[in-house]
Amino acid sequence: MDKIVVNNLTKDYGHGRGIYDVSFTVKEGEVFGFLGPNGAGKSTTIRHLMGFSKPQKGKAAIDKLDCWKKHGQLMKEVGYLPGEVALPDGLNSKGFVHMMQGLRNAQNQQLIKELLERFQLKMTGDVKKLSIGEKRKLAVVAAFMNDPDVLLLDEPTSGLDPVMQEVFITFVKEQKEKGKTVLLSSHIFSEVEALCDRIAIIKEGKIITVVDAEEVKHYKRKTFEVTFQSKEEYDRFQKEPFEFREVNPDEHMLAMVVEDRQTNQFVQASSGYKITKMVEHQQTLEEYFMHFYKSDRTFGGI
Ligand SMILES: Nc1ncnc2c1ncn2[C@@H]1O[C@H](COP(=O)(O)OP(=O)(O)OP(=O)(O)O)[C@@H](O)[C@H]1O
Ligand SMILES: [Mg+2]
Fold it and tell me: 204 CB under 6 A from ligand 1?
């Protein structure tokens, strides 16, 4: 079942800024990644999903509820972590948590206690004076405090230290196991790789592609840097049917791309040569997606 449906969502802020005909769906129980460079339209899309902004065209719906028309209900029900955490004046952390409990009708004190412990929140001091990471942790607690079925997380780990990033990733994995539906925007490829079932790339306000995370993993290719004992061996290997990326005759080194299905062929071919060094490099999700980010590419054909 589709839990989140976005159809031709458009908001034109002028001068080529905004989002244009953005469409995608997130299935129940799915973790959906939203990747894209700065200014691509991730937060704008997420804000429309929370009903903060009226679309000029198209529609966003969560649980079949129109996000603009049912903003009030969604504010109570959906777990939202904003990209920029702005906290109110004159409250300490305890006061803020208390206020959010009221707004979100969060009754489960045990859950709130667990969240505060897990994210190691100190409950003293004015929220305005908290560090960026502490503010974000407080916002995480607010987003999860009523155990919502749908979570919209806008760059959730930005500002968190590496230990807290890990805590957060483990936490979201548990939410996924519990069947929660998560839309997560991020710039951190490892986080997306660890969590997401599908990944959308947005650029200049348009969705460029939506890919299955498993497909990306299977697509993985390796680069091997092989150094041969002699120039003759080095010359001879170049007749083998591999895609050579780099040739270095001085060091008798060849770098080649080997697809997973070619691994056996590569191992067999290599055994007939005198090799002094072999370095393997696995293509990461980052490398896979990086070409979508580069500004000098057109995406018409993708
Ligand atoms: N309220 C607004 N008024 C005018 N322009 C806006 C407004 N909100 C966003 N924009 C513009 O829309 C574009 C998309 O912004 P958005 O914040 O959605 O990007 P983003 O993908 O979240 O980027 P980042 O990775 O930096 O958070 C940007 O060019 C931004 O300047
Ligand atoms: Mg943003």
Answer: no
